[in-house]
Design goal:
With about 200 residues, the protein is an alpha+beta fold. It has one domain (about 1-190): 3-Layer(aba) Sandwich (L-fuculose-1-phosphate Aldolase). It contains six helices and nine strands, in the order αβββββαβαβααββα. The chain has helices at about 1-30, 85-95, 110-120, 135-140, 145-150, 180-190; strands at about 45-50, 60, 65-70, 70-75, 80, 100-105, 125, 160-165, 175-180. The strands form two sheets. A seven-stranded mixed β-sheet has the order 5-2-1-6-9-8-7, with helices on both faces. It has a two-stranded antiparallel sheet with strand order 3-4. A hairpin with an 8-residue loop joins strand 8 and strand 9. The chain is globular and about 55 Å long. About 30% of the residues are buried.
């Protein structure tokens, strides 16, 4: 019984830490300049518990981040179990590289990708969605696993950025991965400098 209480207490502390780190990232991007990085589907920041296995182990911003009065604005609170695409992306990433704990989606532009490649040391990988097997596309929730599997580099690591030019019904997207809020903010600084 004592072990269960200790485990629950540690899990609660870890959940608070994940929420606080998402809040740090969110507070960092609440600037006018970031608005140009918010895609049509809106942005979310997802953060995972260290040994996340299910969507409920992933926190995100309920309703995502939109633009209100010219600045990024969270539609709801940071909660566990509310992220969808970013949660599946993170869960898939963690099966290959458990040090990846955060992801956020950003608006794609060829100019931005070019500038990131030219002016930063971030590791980028392009995915060509038209190469996704049909059986993967029609099977629910398997696209994110395919996307991650296609992106793993020779060292078995997830790149900092996975991007694609979209496909029919799929908005082009940049996905930024990181270990913690400090790592994410450092990478976001490099990206924002390119705007």
């Amino acid at each position: 019984m004592e072990n269960n209480k200790l485990t629950e207490s540690l899990r609660s502390e870890e959940k608070v830490e994940v929420i606080n780190q998402i809040r740090e990232i969110y507070n960092f991007i609440k600037i006018k300049k970031f608005c140009s990085l918010i895609p049509e589907v809106r942005t979310n920041i997802a953060g995972a518990l260290k040994n996340a296995k299910v969507k409920e182990d992933i926190a995100g911003i309920d309703g995502r981040i939109t633009i209100v009065n010219g600045v990024p604005k969270a539609a709801g609170d940071i909660k566990f179990g509310v992220a969808e695409h970013t949660a599946r992306l993170l869960l898939s990433a963690k099966t290959f590289d458990n040090s990846v704990n955060f992801v956020m989606n950003l608006r794609y532009s060829p100019e931005l990708i070019g500038d990131i490649q030219k002016n930063t040391n971030l590791d980028l990988k392009e995915i060509q969605r038209e190469k996704e097997p049909k059986k993967t596309r029609i099977k629910e929730f398997s696209t994110m696993q395919w996307l991650i599997k296609e992106s793993i580099n020779k060292e078995g690591r997830i790149p900092d950025i996975i991007w694609d030019k979209g496909s029919i019904g799929k908005e082009p997207m940049i996905r930024l991965f990181g270990k913690d809020s400090v790592d994410m903010i450092e990478k976001l600084k490099l990206i924002i400098e390119q705007l």
